[in-house]
Amino acid sequence: MIGRLPAKRIRPAAASPAAASDSCKNYLRRAAGCFAVAALLAASSATAQITVNTKTGAVTNTSNGTTINTVDRRFQQIEPTHIPLTRSQLDAKTRLELIRLLQAEQGFAMRPFPRGHKGLTLAANGKLEPAGESYLDMVTSEGLSAKPGDRVVLTDIKIAHSRIVFDLNGGPDPKHRFLRHVQIGVGPEMTGPVVQDADQEPVGARLSLTFEDHVPELTGAEVKALLAPLISFDVKTPVQAFTDTLPAKLKDAILNHHVLVGMTTDMVLFAKGQPEGKSREMDGQMPFEEWIYGKPPQDVEFVRINGSRVIRLEIAKVGETPVIFTKDEVTGLLRTDGTPLEPPGQGPRIAKVGDLERDPDTQAPAPAPSLRKPGEKLPADDQGTGVMRPVQMPKPKLAEQPDAGSGTTPDAQTSPAAPDASQPGPAKPQPFPQAGTDQQN
Fold it and tell me: What is the biggest distance separating any 2 CA atoms in the chain, rounded to whole angstroms?
């Protein structure tokens, strides 16, 4: 019989406590390294599951193929400008004047500005790089420096051979990186670093305006016109600066203080301001927040928000039936192809009693509301209902005689007066005596 003998177990020799602690430390280091590699692989796999279609703007989860969201149309390619440029090069005098005019100039962001050392690159009278999917990747990876409508400041301007580099809101690079590590002192007593900024991370952005061969002769107004697709230097209020980045229909709604289904919370705040009341509730498994604007007898608007979008709008007026809007009117305006999410022809829905719609031909009417418990009976339910009888009308009264001047009615004249208690009543009739009997005197 041929078989396999069990392997002998070899016991290791007893190690010293120092060696045991070294082996334990090495094991922990290897375990930490494995966890770090696993975290990197998980992060890389998580980012690789999301794809963005630059043509349609659809954000798709590649693991299950479902469409998560759509990229804002403003994230796509911009519309190029048409500013006439000269062929002469920028001289030293015009360079200093241009820096003096644009330094510390303030404007409003027309689209989100991402952070990062590289920043955005805008070709003069040309396209923006990156755009589409690459632009979205930069925003999500580097972070956001300014939202549409936020005020931005040109804190630094550098003019190179064929480009002008603008640092917005302090720029994306940390300042005084070398001076942070320099200390001054005598002997063992050393002071702190020359620059103490608590290692604050920069929150600014960078924008590069490029030209073909060289930077031509430019004025401050021409540079602002070239940067108009990304930064607006007009004197505006924050509401005007924000609405200029939106389509015409959405802009008019915000300026006229109207709320549309599909608006973001920022749009609602720009249109109506802070709500007078808020409440958080649950609709089945979906949590939502209700913003309330107005008080009776004025119109009251109930804005229902899920996440950061308006999903329902109810307008209640005194003495009128509330009007409910559930159709998304905003997302279709911001899609890449401009098509709405729902077919047209669906107007506002009027809220009815009980907020239910029943077909009278196929569905029975809903029972009347009651305070009884299910299956509860009252003593009055056992009593049968009575039989309906004809209604008896009251007898009409006799009309008064025209000659009744004394205030007496005909009934009072014909009917005898009631006898008084002090007077004797009328004599009763005596019965006749029967035959054969004597009448007593």
Answer: 172
Q: How confident is the prediction for the chain on average, in pLDDT? A: 74
pTM above 0.85, yes or no: no
- Backbone φ and ψ of 353, nearest 5°: -65, 125
On whether the CB atoms of residues 332 and 339 are closer than 8 A, the answer is: yes
CA angle 309, 48, 206 (to 5 degrees): 70
What number is the average pLDDT over the span 263-281?
91
**Contact between 322 and 315 (Cβ < 8 Å):** yes
What is the predicted pLDDT for the residue at 203? 86
Has domain 246-342 been given CATH number 3.90.25.10? no
The Cα 409–Cα 194 span in angstroms is: 122
- C-alpha distances in angstroms, 8 versus 1, 3, 4, 144, 357? 21, 15, 12, 63, 80
pLDDT at 16 exceeding the cut of 60: no
Domain boundaries along the sequence of the chain: 34-71, 74-178+200-239, 246-342
**Tens digits of per-residue pLDDT, 63-76?**
666 655 444 554 67
DSSP secondary structure string, 314-344? EEE-TTS--EEE-S--SHHHHSSS---SS-S
Where do we find the tokens 């930064």? Answer: 231
Beta bridge partners of 216: 89
DSSP state of 367: P
**Short-list 239, 265, 238, 262, CA closest to 252:** 239
Task: Give residue 61's pLDDT.
Answer: 60
Query: Which of left, alpha, beta for 199 (phi over 0: left; psi -120 to 50: alpha)?
Result: left
User: Quick one: which of 85, 92, 157, 97 has its CA closest to 123?
Assistant: 85
Report the alpha-carbon distance of residue 307 to residue 43 in Å, rounded: 25
How far is the C-alpha of 149 from the C-alpha of 238, rounded, in Å? 6
pLDDT for res 324? 93
Tokens linked to 80: 């190029």
Cα dihedral angle (43, 48, 49, 51), rounded to 10 degrees? Answer: 140
More confident site: 57 or 132: 132
* Portion of the chain with pLDDT greater than 70, in percent: 61
The average pLDDT across 259-278 equals 91
Instruction: Enumerate residues 6+ apart whose C-beta is below 8 A from 280.
Output: 287, 288, 289, 290
Q: What is the pLDDT of residue 47?
A: 40
Range of weakest confidence among 72-76, 209-213, 301-305, 398-402: 72-76
CB atoms within 10 A of CB 226: 23
Q: What is the distance between the alpha carbons of residues 369 and 356, in angstroms, rounded to a whole number?
A: 14
